[in-house]
Amino acid sequence: MSPENRNLDLLINKIGYEIVEEIKTKGNEKTKYKNEIEKALGVLSNDGVYAYYVYVKSRKIDDVFLKKIKPIVETHCSVSLQNDNWQEFFEKLSKDIYSLLFFREILDKILIYARYHAKAMGD
Length: 123
Description:
This protein is an all-alpha fold. The chain has a single domain (3-121), classed as Peroxidase, domain 1, CATH 1.10.520. Helix content is 76%, strand content 0%. Helix 2 packs across helix 8 (97-121).
């Protein structure tokens, strides 16, 4: 295991930063994606992990909001992501309350860090 993966907070911060870096490449859609950080965080907080998944898929922002969390899923989740089948991943995750709550906390922190990185980025 690399030193980066041993420090979970460091990895969470890195992913939050990478979300914003990916948003910077979105050109005309950059503002939309920045606003979606706050909205996705609200969905996660109010409705849970599966609602987050459905939200990012429905808003067609999964190219950032799922793709960038893949490293943490692969290194820190008890449920594996196979063939990028996010639907199956979230269904399996919901069967283990401890894994689900752990993942929710991680995802919450990632989005909070992304929000702060986005604010630092400015317009």
